[in-house]
Amino acid sequence: MAQLAKLEAAVAMKNPNKLMDFLKNNIQALPQLFPQLYKSVEIVGGGRQLATGSIISLSYYLPGTPTLMRGSVEVESMDEARKSIALNVIGGDGLKMFKSFRVKCEIDDEQPQLVKWSLEYDKASPSTPPADPYLEFYINLTAAIDVL
Questions:
Q1: What pLDDT, on a 0 to 100 scale, did the predictor assign at position 46?
Q2: What's residue 108's pLDDT?
Q3: Residues near 85 by beta carbon (within 8 Å), at least 6 away in sequence
Q4: In this protein, which residues make up the domain named Bet v I/Major latex protein (predicted)?
């Protein structure tokens, strides 16, 4: 039986466009700028910009744990006009707890100072805890980029 769940958060930023621009053009700089969050980020197959279909290999730390997590995500969609990006986890530690895991980030048209994060996931078992640490991770990332 599917254990589908969804978490959402809205984070205020001084300039939300900075987040989208950073993710598209500077994602590989995350470990140097935020070593408390990332150990490594690489666009598989090269390239410097994210685009729909890009594969990202990364190592990261979830809030509240010193354990290094590893994963791979595919950019499912990147829509500059709608100011949104959707990622699909395709490998790594996260898929040990979740059968599927999708992340979406978008700037709210009605409140353009807000960045909305949504996580949609399918728990591997009923005892799998919610993905709250992952949502906290993205909230922390947003706050860190906001002060750059």
A1: 73
A2: 86
A3: 20, 23, 24, 50, 75, 77, 78, 79, 104, 105, 106
A4: 2-146
Q: What is the CATH number of the domain that holds 17?
A: 3.30.530.20
Q: Which amino acid is at 121?
A: Y
pLDDT band per the 50, 70, 90 thresholds, residue 57: very high
Contact between 61 and 36 under an 8 Å Cβ cutoff? The reply is: yes
Q: Which two tokens stand for residue 122?
A: 């399918």
Counting beta carbons within 10 angstroms of the beta carbon of residue 121, is it exposed (0 to 12), middle (13 to 18) or buried (19 or more)? buried
- Domain count within the chain: 1
Mean pLDDT of 82-86: 95
32: number of Cβ within 10 Å = 10
- What CA–CA distance (Å, rounded) separates 24 from 105? 12
Range of the domain at 102: 4-146
pTM of the prediction?
0.93
